[in-house]
Automatic annotation (TrEMBL):
It holds the Pfam family M20_dimer. InterPro entries: Amidohydrolase, Bact_exopeptidase_dim_dom, Peptidase_M20, Peptidase_M20_dimer. Keywords: Hydrolase, Manganese, Metal-binding. SUPFAM superfamilies: Bacterial exopeptidase dimerisation domain (SSF55031), Zn-dependent exopeptidases (SSF53187). This is Peptidase M20. PANTHER family: METALLOPEPTIDASE, PUTATIVE (AFU_ORTHOLOGUE AFUA_6G09600)-RELATED, PEPTIDASE M20 FAMILY MEMBER. Its cofactor is Mn(2+). GO terms for biological process: diaminopimelate biosynthetic process. Mn(2+) binds at residues 99, 101, 135, 161, 361. The Mn(2+) ion enhances activity. GO terms for molecular function: metal ion binding; N-acetyldiaminopimelate deacetylase activity. Residues 185-276 form the Peptidase M20 dimerisation domain. It comes from the Bacteria.
């Protein structure tokens, strides 16, 4: 089954779809145009679907068999100004597809067409998950809650992400844990305000916050094994209105990233202990909120083996990379990997010769569109192969 040739036959249409979505980015769950474009495509192809998670979509291609594999694409853009100068740069001020979700949608639509056209040859069903709000709270937990993994029951979920640090024409996979878990936190430190000339009659929350920020870094550097990745980032601190006024309170916010569940639990406990201890010692009070956010993304061993074998057959062994290190970034696909055997791999989209090297979440981000047909072929190959195996 030559899925690469099939994908290249629709390459020009894939480029058109991707550029249209790129020019019209939408955020979070407010994906009304994007969602409608997907639904219009599915209607033309005769693929059944239903709406889920507000503006998300679950579609299904029914083959001949009991097994079901799901392919997933995220759909939302970022609140960022597109500074690329090209024919397809964003038309929407302050919004941009700076993470490649426009490519992910396009690839899943291309795979949908090819797989639907050969549905009689499929040894099972293919579900198509179009997920909203990946860049915010993640649409996948809501999709799961609303039953996308049921009726029929999903046996495996496969996803991908374009990566500019991999050249177009290549793919990469990190076995086992591929993405970190995250816990955003907010700390409000309450002191006693007053005049800057009389600090002795105040309880300075800025000084307390400074001690807290420094101490938090020692949790990772001195309490987590140096061989295990973990990060505590303080991303913002807000307090005070003037140079000569000691404020009443200061708010610190940041995020914890870990690769192991035991470290995740430990750091949450120690963050509270460290903050409360310092604040109490310095006569202040505090309010601490730690959110339970994205879990770690785990790649299934059997699916990883299948990826390794089939990707080498499709694009050549020299173009397939086994990655040694996970990323400390987070990915809402992780929620699917907590429920079902899952595979999430990286699709090369960079091109150094063309200057397509700018990082995701940046205002100059772009992709080498040659990756679209490879992504389609990869998704079709993996879905077909999974269903083929009894």
């Amino acid at each position: 089954m030559n899925f690469l040739n099939m994908a290249k036959n629709i390459e020009s249409e894939l480029v058109d779809i991707r550029r249209d979505i790129h020019q019209n980015p939408e955020l979070g769950f407010d994906l009304f145009r994007t969602s409608q474009k997907v639904k219009d495509f599915l209607k033309v192809e005769g693929i059944e679907f239903y709406e889920v998670a507000q503006t998300g979509i679950c579609a299904i291609i029914r083959g001949n068999g009991k097994k079901t594999v799901a392919l997933r694409a995220d759909m939302d853009a970022l609140p960022l100004q597109d500074k690329k100068v090209c024919d397809y740069s964003s038309k929407i001020n302050g919004k941009m597809h700076a993470c490649g979700h426009d490519a992910h949608i396009t690839i899943l639509l291309g795979a949908a067409r090819i797989l639907n056209n050969m549905r009689d040859e499929l040894k099972g069903n293919v579900k198509l998950f179009f997920e909203p709000a990946e860049e915010t709270t993640g649409g996948s937990p809501l999709m799961i809650k609303e039953g996308v993994l049921e009726h029929p029951n999903v046996d495996a979920v496969i996803g991908l992400h374009v990566e500019e640090w991999l050249e177009a024409g290549t793919v990469g996979l990190k076995r086992d844990i591929a993405y970190a878990a995250s816990n955003p936190f907010t700390i409000k430190i309450i002191g006693k305000g007053g005049h800057g000339a009389s600090p002795h009659v105040t309880i300075d929350p800025i000084v307390i916050a400074s001690n807290v920020i420094v101490a938090l870094q020692s949790i990772v550097s001195r309490e987590i094994p140096p061989t295990d990745p973990a990060v505590i980032t303080v991303g913002s601190i807000h307090g005070g209105t003037a140079q000569n006024i000691i404020p009443e309170d200061v708010t610190i916010s940041g995020i914890i990233r870990t690769m192991k569940s035991e470290h995740r639990e430990y750091i949450e406990i120690r963050l509270v202990q460290v903050v409360e201890g310092i604040v109490k010692a310095m006569r202040g009070k505090c309010e601490i909120e730690i959110e339970e956010s994205y879990p770690c993304l785990h790649n299934n061993d059997e699916l990883s083996d299948m990826f390794d074998n089939k990707s080498k057959e499709l694009i050549g062994e020299s173009n397939v990379y086994n990655l040694d290190k996970p990323t400390m970034g987070v990915e809402s696909f992780a929620y699917f990997s907590m429920e079902k055997p899952s595979l999430f791999y990286f699709l090369g989209s960079g091109n150094k010769e063309k200057g397509i090297i700018n990082p995701a979440h940046g205002s100059l981000f772009d992709i080498d569109e040659r990756c679209l047909s490879i992504g389609v072929a990869m998704q079709c190959t993996l879905a077909y192969e999974f269903l083929l195996k009894s």
